[in-house]
Amino acid sequence: LQHTQNEQNPWWEVDLGADYLLGNIIIHNRTNGPQSRLNNFYIFVSDTPFSATATLNQLVSNNDISKQYFPTAVGDQLIVGLNTEGRYLRIQLSGSGILHMAEVEVMGCPAAPSSCDGVAAITLNSSGPFLDTDEVQNLVASPLGGTWSGASTDGTFDPSIGVGTYSVTYTYDNGLGCVQSETVDIVVNTIGTGGCVLSNIALNGIATQSSTYGRGLASIAIDGNTMGSSPWSADLQHTNNENTPWWSLDLGGEYSIDALNLFNRTDNLQSRLNNFYVFVSDTPFATGVSLDDLRNDSDVFEYFFANNAGLEETISLNAQGRYLRIQLSGSGILHMAEVEVMGCPVDNGATGLRASVDPEIFHLAQDFNFRLVPNPASRIVTIQFIGISRLEEVIVYDLNGKQVLIKAFMEAETSKTFDITHLAKGVYQVYLKLADGTEHSKKLIKN
Fold first, then answer.
1. Over the stretch 132-156, which tens digit does the pLDDT of each residue have?
2. Range list of H helices, 14-141
3. Nearest to 374 by CA among 410, 418, 406
4. pLDDT of residue 249
5. How confident is the model over 390-418, as a mean pLDDT?
6. What is the pLDDT of residues 330-340, one digit of tens each?
7. Phi/psi of residue 31, nearest 5 degrees
8. Range with the lowest mean pLDDT among 69-73, 313-317, 422-426?
């Protein structure tokens, strides 16, 4: 007897292994006990796999998925005419309960062969990364005779287009009804004033802020997720409404900083990010230091951004230091979805880990840092962290704010490995809760 736990919208599904023309489905209920549990359920049929994080409402509203709803309880057996085509079939309760069935028979025939059967798949060689000073590149794809689109229309790519990530698509039509395409992203970098290829040096930093509203932690602004709309969904750094609120970053070593890429909140209230200063220093910013003190310190680099920030702002700095602060010039709320710091190590002396940070300073600042290894990942991820506070649990959310995984930490554990095989490809937020009450998050990419 197939049997789930008592849960919200339990489901059972099958991959038939290929596309089939589906006639009837025969569902055999349990032969003893509470047969009435099999009631008020959907039958879904799809050509593509069901996302592991898809909600029932998303499946119901998806026009590419065939669906039937049964509002009553099933007796010993139910025969349903499907009359559709697909490879993946799911049975799912519409509410809370237990899903159990003795047997599911799916009656059907193989679908007509595809025009792409036996046709070699497209291969498109991944290219780059390039520097914006590199010469024009010839892209390679097969089978020959296809067409190019996106950032290339003739099979060449010119890196002088500028720094960024560019998508190139190669499409091949065999003339018999089989049209295939493949897309790659080409990255173009530039050499910074520090003499190295610029990269986002903020990702392994330690972020703090003057105050925290909701779950808008300082670390969210360096988690790699440039989208953010709420301090409650672990995707937006957010302070309280206060006088000259600030957000600070310890890069862990001295860097030559060429520019900042600031990503504002993506829904509304973007105008709150306005008339702010950017400070860069070789030494830590003193506790309680005022805005006027920072402005009058000749050893601190200063930049002022006037007026309201848009969705995304790039600020050229050409500064050098280890500590960076963004601070409003007056009263208000400081919130940012992401801060990218583009720079190079000075004399290659910067480090990504903070083992040398004084423990007392570490504790007083409530500093904490963790890494996800590997990231991106397809199956297994390990959390590696430093800090003096014990971890209590790790929670993984999708970008819709739905909890998809939770794990508790044992008292002596200094790392945690977990399996993400069941998660769909995409971007997730890994959210750590510490025993001292603080919380931290980073972006995880499932590939």
1. 888 999 999 998 999 999 999 999 9
2. 56-61
3. 418
4. 96
5. 76
6. 999 999 999 99
7. -95, -5
8. 422-426
Can you read off the two tokens belonging to residue 229?
Answer: 């709309």
What is the number of residues in the chain?
447
**The tokens of 215 are what?**
């779950």
Tokens at 28, concatenated? 């055999």
Kind plus residue range of the DSSP H or E element containing 359: helix 359-364
Q: 66 to each of 134, 379, 437, how far by Cα in Å?
A: 50, 30, 46
As a whole number of angstroms, the distance between CA 230 and CA 225 comes to 13
Supply the DSSP symbol for 355: T
33-84, pLDDT tens digit by residue?
Answer: 888 899 999 999 999 999 888 899 999 989 899 999 998 888 889 998 998 9
Separation in Å, CA 87 to CA 17, 21, 45, 55, 239: 6, 9, 7, 20, 49
- Residue 400 pLDDT grade (very low, low, confident, very high; cuts 50, 70, 90): low
Residue with tokens 């010119």: 158
Which one-letter DSSP state was computed for residue 362? Answer: H
Pairing between strand 147-150 and 237-238?
unpaired
Choose from 79-93, 163-177, 396-410 the range with maximum mean pLDDT. Answer: 79-93
- Give the pair of three-digit tokens for residue 202: 């903020």
The enclosing H or E element of 280 equals strand 274-281
- Which amino acid does the sequence have at 240? N
Q: What is 181-221 written as a DSSP string?
A: EEEEEEEEE-B-TTSSB-EETTTTSEEEES---TT--GGGG
What whole-number distance in Å separates Cα of residue 254 and Cα of residue 192? 14
User: According to the model, what pLDDT value does residue 65 have?
Assistant: 93
d(CA 47, CA 44) in angstroms, rounded, equals 10
Give the three-class secondary structure for 363: helix
